[in-house]
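Operator note (shift B, R.M.): manual run for Trehalase requested after the automated queue skipped it. Running by hand, logging everything below so the morning shift can see what happened. Input copied straight from the record, untouched. If output looks odd, do not overwrite the archive copy; leave it for review.
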Amino acid sequence: MTLPPLFSLLRLSPLFALCSLHVSMATDPDPLLSFLQRVQSDALLTMGPTDFDPKLYVDLPLKTNLSIAVSAFDSLPRRSGTIPISEFNKFLKEFFDEAGSDLVYAELVDFKPEPEGFLVKVQNEEMRKWALEVHAIWKNLSRRVSEKVKKRPERHTLLYLPGTVIVPGSRFREVYYWDSYWVIRGLLASKMYDTAKGIVFNLISLIETYGHVLNGARTYYTNRSQPPLLSSMVRDIYMRTGDAELLKRTLPPLLKEHSFWVSDIHQVTIQDQRGHKHCLSRYQARWYQPRPESATVDEELSLKLTPSEKDAFYHELASAAESGWDFSSRWMRNSSDLTTTATTSIIPVDLNTFIYKLELDISTFAKITGDNSTSQKFIESAKSRKVAIRSLLWNPNLGQWFDYWLDKHDAHQGVYHWNPGSQNCKIFASNFVPLWLLAQYPDSDQLIEEFDEDLTSLRKTGLIRDYGIATSLSNTGQQWDFPNGWAPLQHMIVDGLANARSKEARSLAEGIAINWIKTNFAAYKKTASMHEKCNVETCGEFGGGGEYIPQTGFGWSNGVVLALLEEFGWPRDRDVSC
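Run finished. Output pasted below as returned.
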């Protein structure tokens, strides 16, 4: 099934009217969350920092009314300010259920051990056996939110969702926004269309309640989103199923999502050297406190900052979390100092690529469902964003798109004046995310006009390593930096190259995919687990760094392996080892 061809994007429209919409920065305090952060803080004192995960404590479901638990907590004995470990554990057992117990196992009605038509191009028996094992992991990650959450939401930080969910795994016990796109790509390879649609409907329920898709389905994530990929999920399901009713149902929430990303919280106006004004978007959370899921970490990092500096720092950390890249030298003024994070001062290439694609998707869905007015409106919006990205983020000399640093000294009456020296010319995999559009809209008038230059630039960057694409070239100890490789970045770049109608590009894409699959295969054979990220320097080694220990499961890693095997297959005579 193919989508109708997109219209020609004929002219530059005025600045999109929604760019002046206002989204409130206020966040109401949550009594349960405030209490759980107190528990978290005292737990660190009692348990000590070794293997301490602050998220565990804000995920605990209450067994009783909050006031009773607070009173009992306040009455606990303290020795030099620290609760004895035996008393603390007794309190936790009496007043809380286990973290994650408010999600229960859900049977996947469309799961089959070996679906008809599953990975028909995978002919190697050993690789096929492993692919079926990865496919089977969907059963391990499937959950539904307990009815207890619906009946007593004040006892849970987990948010109620109506349908079956696929969680990433390990400490990530709840649904996450952008993870869900690659989960769905894997589910489509697994022929699990109903489960994929259910994920979309869960995310729509968040839009209907909060006005946007949350970072994740927890009360402490309501202050931010993640990269806007809901329309991409819908489009990919539609391409497999031809379900036009899905488009009708999702179009209104997608319009709300677009409004969120072009509101004055996210939107910035920049005037180029010719005097033309452009609107582009940035990440910006509505939060100025320690992130509840990492509050003890954030507080320790901010010890040397003044009160006003702390508020700004917490805001920038939460905004980096909205990007999905938490954390990376990409957002830092000084790559060795996380307190120099300045996410809101950056216009990101990938975010604006996602919003551009969102606008194309809305236009396409509206056309298919007969709403020509909305379709035309978003054609014009996409055209404006394309011109903005080409004018401000593309660097013809280096053949890449670069993030743009905002400088308050370049601003006048709310408009920034473009400075060519403000492009961040450091190398990140995100510089090549626009290539993904080659897979999504190969016949449309889009961002990529100098593909050969971009392909040459990618080869020269040093990002392509032995076992995947590195996230950056800077080894900072942050998890979204070298030597880590992440499944989403592999997939977007490989998917774009594979569909570029270039033998050279497809050959490069297949080589990257083969090596990424091999390193995941080797890691699985060593550990019996799929991993959140991989070290692209060493075959079979999972990634590290960041603020928590490496996680397994793992939703998007499984999805990308299955999607790449579906695209490229695995010949019978191809070796599976490194």
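Quick read of the result: The first strand starts at residue 103 and ends at 105. The two ends are 37 Å apart (CA to CA).
Leaving this for review. - R.M.
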